[in-house]
Amino acid sequence: VGEVILLRIFGVCLIFIVFHKGQVNTSLLTHIPNSPIPSLPDFLISLIPRAWTIFGFEAPSDLSEETVSAKRIVPKSIITGIISSIILGAFFLGVVTIAIPDLGVITASADPISTIFAYHIGQSLTNILLVMVLVAMFATAVLNQTVASRVLFAVSMDERFVGHSFLKKVSSHGIPYLSVITIIIV
After folding, report:
1. Whole-angstrom Cα distance, residue 31 to residue 38?
2. Which of 120, 88, 98 is nearest to 28 (CA)?
3. Based on CB atoms within 10 Å of each CB, which residue in 16, 111, 146, 165 is the most buried?
């Protein structure tokens, strides 16, 4: 939820600022630049959001045993996750693309997104954006650990994993603590 709000707020603010300044750069939406030359590593890095979308598709189903009304909630969560990833991702990438002030400067930057934001909204607000991104990444990492622990516990319960008798133990609070600890260590 935080990421959705973050993308909307900063994306809309950036649109207004770019249009207000009259610095809308639509050239990258209409043609491919000669420099930098697209490469395989760039293409592979661009696939990372697709992997996150697949994770968003898979996570609700992995955690569905703990969900009330799972047959109704899980499909809705999966579809909502995919649709929001597509719409918000395209929106944010489009906004950032039209906000590029100088392609050469942004290409040379170690962090192009924050460079674009710093140019338009200043370093202080960009730092707030980066803190919010850090919090969202931390929340996603916690969710990753939860899903991985749940999957490890499930395959251990089915006796389909090495050390299943050890990993399927549950605490008095109902937490598969050995699966959780194993995932944290890994």
Report:
1. 13
2. 98
3. 146
- Amino acid identity at 104: G
> Token pair for residue 173?
């609070």
Give the whole-angstrom CA distance, residue 36 versus residue 39: 9
35 to each of 2, 32, 45, 78, 107, how far by Cα in Å? 35, 9, 18, 38, 9
State the burial class of residue 145 (Cβ atoms within 10 Å of its Cβ: 0-12, 13-18, 19+): middle
| CA end-to-end distance (rounded Å), the chain | 27
* Per-residue model confidence as pLDDT tens digits over 36-78: 677 788 778 877 777 766 666 677 667 777 678 878 888 887 7
Question: What's the pTM?
Answer: 0.72
pLDDT tens, position by position, 82-135: 788 788 888 888 999 999 998 889 988 999 999 999 999 999 999 998 998 888
**Separation CA 70–CA 62 (nearest Å):** 11
The b-or-e profile of 42-78 (16+ CB within 10 A means b, else e) is: eeeeeeeeeeebebbeebbebbbeeeeeeeeebeebb
Q: How many CB atoms lie within 10 A of CB 90?
A: 10
- Rounded CA gap, 142 and 178, in Å? 16
